[in-house]
Amino acid sequence: MLTALQQKKQTHLFKLIDIDNNGLMEADDWVAIGQRLTTERGIQKGQQEYDRIQQAVQGIWKDLSPFIGAKQADKATPEEWSKFIEEKVISVDDATYAGYVNKVVKGIFTILDVNRNGAIDAWEYILFMKCMGVKDGPAHDAFTVLDNNGNGVLDEEELIKGVEEFFKSDDWHSKGNSLFGPLPEFYHF
Ligand SMILES: [Ca+2]
Ligand SMILES: [Ca+2]
Ligand SMILES: [Ca+2]
Q1: Tens digit of pLDDT for each residue in 12-21?
Q2: Which of these, 13, 30, 40, 168, has the minimum number of CB atoms within 10 Å of its CB?
Q3: Which pTM was predicted?
């Protein structure tokens, strides 16, 4: 079983990704995230950058979906998602975890790093979070928490650490809890 905190984080993430709000995570949700990203950046269909972003976003789902073991191929219920996180992300050895989670992190990094300077600036993070339905204020606060060394950017190491804490940590004080914006119950102040 996931702990109460781990479950809260996954419920939060699932809802963010389920863009069409039909209670299932599926390829179309990831396509929609990609479309929001390109729209926000003023990138048109047919441009090379459009395809690059769509490939990166859809690539995340392609990398994950075979491991989810959903009853319906290519669609995951919240329960299937939580089970996947528990069995294939939290309870696996470090090598297995690194094998695909770090690959996913690299995908996320590619998507977030708009100006490709090898670091995630606050505006890049806030833009991404906006596409997931998180408002600027909470997104900015989350960025500040995730920027562990306080230098104003997230590097790949900080992102990898944030991802690990988001998925695995059972400590309410872990900075990575805020990876996808503050959890709803945290954002009262
Ligand atoms: Ca959906
Ligand atoms: Ca950047
Ligand atoms: Ca930093």
Answers
A1: 999 999 999 9
A2: 40
A3: 0.91
